[in-house]
């Protein structure tokens, strides 16, 4: 069982790292586009007309593609007052709180995933493009269900892992 959990964690970690790598490439592209646009504006008084739209699309994609790794490593914003209080004193309460947090995260991911699909279908059917540069929107919109789906899988894995940990802690406490 432990090896199976380790394999799943390793697989989720590789997928999250791949998304984070794409996010890092997107951030580098943002910097590159802005530098080129500023140089074009200063040197030849002709900035790139598509910079703002593409940077906005890249920024949104980078935000969502970075989310799975942040979730896997638990590096997101948390309300630390209650978590720190329970961490040292009540291990069962801390475990229950982490189970609730993973459940809420999973619920939000499912909700966002379900809501995103009709928007992507609409963009694909209408062949939607950005206003100025005429860049297709559907590929950019795909970053949302991919990253939210992976984040949901990570929350599901964390939820199951924490429930198994709490169950194991209770069964071992009952044996002693």
From TrEMBL:
Species of origin: Tropicimonas aquimaris
Function: Part of the tripartite ATP-independent periplasmic (TRAP) transport system.
UniProt membrane topology term: Multi-pass membrane protein
Subunit note: The complex comprises the extracytoplasmic solute receptor protein and the two transmembrane proteins.
Sequence ranges assigned to domain Tripartite ATP-independent periplasmic transporters DctQ component in this UniProt record: 30-163
Family: Belongs to the TRAP transporter small permease family.
Taxonomy, superkingdom: Bacteria
Transmembrane segments annotated in the record for this chain: 12-34, 54-74, 95-120, 140-160
One Pfam family, short name: DctQ
Keywords, in A-Z order: Cell inner membrane, Cell membrane, Membrane, Transmembrane, Transmembrane helix, Transport
Matches recorded under InterPro entries: DctQ (IPR055348), TRAP_DctQ (IPR007387)
Protein name in UniProt: TRAP transporter small permease protein
The keyword Glycosyltransferase is annotated on this UniProt entry: no
Subcellular location: Cell inner membrane
């Amino acid at each position: 069982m432990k090896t199976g959990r380790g394999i799943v964690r390793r697989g989720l970690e590789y997928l999250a790292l791949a998304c984070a790598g794409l996010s890092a490439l997107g951030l580098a592209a943002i910097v590159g586009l802005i530098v080129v646009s500023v140089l074009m504006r200063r040197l030849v008084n002709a900035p790139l007309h598509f910079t703002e739209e593409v940077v906005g699309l890249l920024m949104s994609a980078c935000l969502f593609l970075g989310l799975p790794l942040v979730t896997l490593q638990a590096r997101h914003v948390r309300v630390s007052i209650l978590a720190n209080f329970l961490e040292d004193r009540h291990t069962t309460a801390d475990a229950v709180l982490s189970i609730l947090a993973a459940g809420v995260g999973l619920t939000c991911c499912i909700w966002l995933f379900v809501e995103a699909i009709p928007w992507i279908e609409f963009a694909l059917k209408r062949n939607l493009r950005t206003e100025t540069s005429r860049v297709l929107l559907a590929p950019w919109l795909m970053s949302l269900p991919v990253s939210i789906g992976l984040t949901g899988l990570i929350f599901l894995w964390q939820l199951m892992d924490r429930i198994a940990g709490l169950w194991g802690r209770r069964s071992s406490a009952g044996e002693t």
